[in-house]
Amino acid sequence: MLTLVSRVLLAAALAVPSPDGLSQSLDPRQEQATGPAVLEAGHVDVGPRYRDGAWTVQIHDDERVPPVWRSPDDAVIRVRDAARQAIPDDPAYRFLGEAPGTSVHVLPQTQQEGVVWLGWNTQDPGVLEHAGRGVTMNLRGVHGPGRLTVFLQSGTLGAPQVLWSTDTAYPQALWVDRNTHTHANWVFGRPGVYLVALDVTAELAGGGTATASATLRFAVGDATDPDQARAAALTLPPASPSPAAAAVAGGDAVPGWLAVLLGLAAVLLVALLIGVAVRGAAVRRRAERERGAA
């Protein structure tokens, strides 16, 4: 457990937005990197990209010199144990769902040495040219061993603003204005692999909309292998009614043969109940006829 001084420092790290570093412009000539990559320090943004007539969700790797765009399928965001903090003993943080003093992994709203500084932007030159007012970032589902909460906080006295939480039903929509660059606090309740499914829908300047989807991959904790996060597959039902609906393929999903057996059992149970009801009605009618005859 961290000391009181450490908890105070955590509260400050969670609360105080960076006074600089958010003003940026992206070079339209930035390349699309290929191949696996592990992003475990430095500045990283998620955001839509428009190129060659196609809308995609990409990861902007600003730690690389010069910066590049990466596919979320190639990149794993690694949250090292250097990001571990204790939940402050403050009622303002009860929304995190963890007891005060609980150790969690935090990607903070402010930049911290040796920890990924994760945010999002809508500043790709193609997006600036073709998007209208902005985009909607929809959280479609999360699979992981613990809670995930993403929130903003303005100043040490500002109330936390929860943006996404695995304690809330999906989908969870977040509006982002065009030409925006934002960082937030990402709090992971337990170490392990987290898969975060996102849709980004752009309002087009010429009318209509365009939607792109991606799965962000996190390896939380030094003991978690980034290759495991890269290899994991996320399957979601057409509409996720609750956080429990997201499951890694081959993991928490109900086997197909078991689903078939359960379906047959349900059909047989319904047929049995109908048969009992029909026989009961016949017995009552016969009894009524016999009483009438008597």
From TrEMBL:
It comes from the Bacteria. Keywords: Membrane, Transmembrane, Transmembrane helix. The chain crosses the membrane at residues 257-282. This is Surface-anchored protein. It comes from Catenuloplanes atrovinosus.
